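Incident log, support desk, overnight shift.

02:14 A customer reports that sequence design results differ from what the structure should imply. Their input is reproduced verbatim below. On-call engineer (initials T.W.) acknowledged and began investigating.
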């Protein structure tokens, strides 16, 4: 059974609430496609107005992060129940910018993964190597470690619903894109790693995205690869071109 493509926009720290609603209104007709899952992952302050603006459309809303505790004295953090109550379906976890700038580790990502599943939120778990790691030939060693730690304690049934986003750090926001062959090779390696942790059936069910300067020109070839099930799109998700990525065929 073919995996359903999932194309998610990661808005990062962009768009005020009013700007976010205006962007949703612009994109709604452009991303109408019942053959793929379309997700807007937006800043926390934009979630409620964006959920409202997306009602009655094919768009689902995701958060860009969440904390792994239910509630408490964690100033500035957002609990999973807050997200579900607001209408969030997905959450991006372990993005390289979170790891680099905010001391996120694979261990904290794992705690967040477990908590997301507990609350019925689908995690989009990010992994990816630096240019230095690629040049040293340790890309798959590093990514396998991120995946294995990220999925510790996750059941096979939970894992089957997960999304993994492979984003080579050297290709995020740089205009550089991994070649189709590079992207497919790593996504296939991630699927093999999931098969090792669980089994072939679980590996076949997991959806693996490619992210890293995905645009309307590169999307069709990337998404045609056997192990690439869509994209996690940064800058291009803030423009009308995102419609072309969603309707990539």
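02:41 Re-run completed on a clean worker. Output:
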């Amino acid at each position: 059974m073919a995996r359903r493509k999932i194309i998610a926009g990661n808005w990062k720290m962009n768009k005020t609430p009013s700007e976010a609603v205006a962007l949703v209104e612009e994109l709604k007709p452009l991303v109408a496609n019942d053959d793929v899952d379309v997700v807007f992952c937006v800043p926390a302050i934009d979630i409620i107005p964006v959920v409202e603006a997306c009602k009655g459309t094919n768009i689902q809303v995701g958060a860009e992060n969440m904390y792994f505790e239910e509630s408490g004295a964690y100033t500035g953090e957002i609990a999973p129940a807050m997200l579900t109550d607001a209408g969030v379906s997905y959450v991006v976890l372990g993005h390289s910018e979170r790891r680099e700038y905010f001391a996120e580790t694979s261990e904290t990502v794992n705690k967040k993964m477990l908590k997301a599943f507990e609350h019925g939120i689908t995690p989009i778990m990010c992994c990816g190597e630096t240019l230095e790691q690629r040049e040293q030939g340790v890309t798959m060693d590093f990514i396998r470690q991120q995946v294995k730690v990220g999925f510790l304690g996750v059941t096979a049934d939970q894992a089957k619903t997960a999304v993994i986003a492979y984003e080579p750090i050297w290709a995020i926001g740089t205009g550089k894109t991994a070649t189709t062959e590079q992207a497919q090779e790593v996504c296939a390696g991630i699927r093999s790693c999931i098969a090792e942790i669980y089994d072939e059936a679980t590996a076949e069910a997991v959806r693996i995205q490619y992210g890293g300067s995905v645009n309307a020109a590169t999307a069709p070839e990337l998404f045609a690869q056997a192990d690439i099930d869509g994209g996690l799109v940064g800058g291009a998700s803030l423009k009308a071109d995102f419609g072309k990525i969603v309707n990539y065929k």
